[in-house]
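Possible race condition, two jobs.
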Amino acid sequence: MFTGVAINASSVRRQYTHALAVDSGMLILQRATDQYPSEQELTRLTSLAAPDVLLLDMENPELAVRCLQTIQTKYLDTPVIAFGGTPVQHKTLRVYGVQHFLPYPATPDVFVAMLAEAIRANHSENLPNLFAFLPAKAGCGASTITLGLASAMANHLGKNILCMDTDLRSGAQALMLGLEARGSTQGALTGAYELDNFKWNNAVTRHHEVDFLLSSGNVLNPPAEWSHYFALIRFVENRYDAILADMPELINGATEEVVRRASLVFLITTQEPVALRLAARRFEDLKRWGVEETRIRLVVNRWQRRDTSIEMIEGAVGLPVASTFSNDYNRVRTTLQSGVSPVPADNAFGRELVRFGEGLMGVTEEARPFARSEQARNGFAGVLRSLVTRQAR
């Protein structure tokens, strides 16, 4: 649950904000006043842990601004949702950094939308250790790459890794690893507001030195919302060196939160014509969901030198190729079925995953093999052709 403080001008307004919070299903009010607080009361209010959002009644604009100025000395980064008031009064509040306004009264749906807007705007930064892997279409190998990369980074690079399967309907990772999941992504999302160490340890399945959050394949009813993914990411973001999210091919309003916060989103394709056409479509989808092009990387899986060229792939998708993986599917399948680590470092695919993981852990953007610049755009194809030729020999 998100937490909030509501400053109201009357008991009627306090009941109003309380009802909005309850109806939203995602906000707990730590404190709600039934009049504008005195200086002493404001001191008590600001002694609380910083809330996720502040609700401010605009019935008396002068007193509202006075409260806001005092509260912001303690809760400078807390987003404020002002309700009531006129456009002229809202203009004054904008001087103090208030950007979110509700009519009075507002419907629960309007309030939930405004709550999402305020909290997301205050948590819009990309997390440097969160990486999303999105297939152009089913069967492109995104899950194989994500699983293999998690194992490579944990076993060969010594990193603390979370690999989570966000494809709730398929649950491919558990099937590929042949594991009976201890917990599930569904369970973690359902209880995301109340996660603690004990619940988290029961949600993840430890395998190959990796914490796997595996999908059970069951459909959630009601479905997960953006706030569940938000709460899950907030809980795990400081617990792992890297968080790898295996995504379904289609983003929705809930999983949008993962790609919105990811440092990089890797679009996985093969050289098949249909996969390339769908990769171009996924590229546009990601941009529509608000993912900047600078955060999207195109990865070609099962690369074969004699198949579609780098230039043709880049032309078809509209993105430069950032990395390739060898066509070693039979070896990968045999390894997975044997129950040993999915990333033996004695084959090309394993070595490529280790190098890929080293790039993700680069301490600067320049250290990453996935960084793009105008120079890289102009000269990348020739360099990559040379690299791919060496790998394919």
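Job #2 (started ~2 s after job #1):
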Amino acid sequence: MTYFAKMKGTTTSPPMVGVSEVVWSWVGAFLGISLVAWINYQVLEGTGRLLLIAPFGASAVLIFGAIKSPLAQPRNLVGGHVVAAIIGVACYKLFAQYPWLASSVAVATVIAAMHLTKTLHPPAGATALFAVVGGERIHALGFSYAILPVGAGVLILLAVALLFNNIPRTRRYPEFWF
């Protein structure tokens, strides 16, 4: 097969999901992000701490909208984000004077680390990148970034996903833990 022929793909697009699945995904994502955001703005406001980071939006897509995906499972959600936070902070500390290098090394290293630990979770790439480009507020957290906001935030999202995704008979989460 030629190089460009590979880009045609091998299958057709998956079928659309039903309205019920759309509604369950919407409500789940709303509840999960609402809880994290509420804690961020109502409990942590004024403390200098934060809980809500952009990569959690992408995680919500997976854990509420693609619950059967291996990328959405608890090990991937929690492990991917925590590994990414640690690597992202380390890369910032090592290469802070070269942000372009810190950014690229962080994301590339996180992909390799997630593959090696079987925790591949695409939104975690953004968690690593945010450790580098997130500004002084994030940089000041140092390695505690892996605990709060990252660790605590993903555990809250996971708790909501576990409770909510198992309400309808048509949904089951998780598919596996380890």
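Residues 83 and 110 are 7 Å apart (CA to CA).
Logs attached separately.
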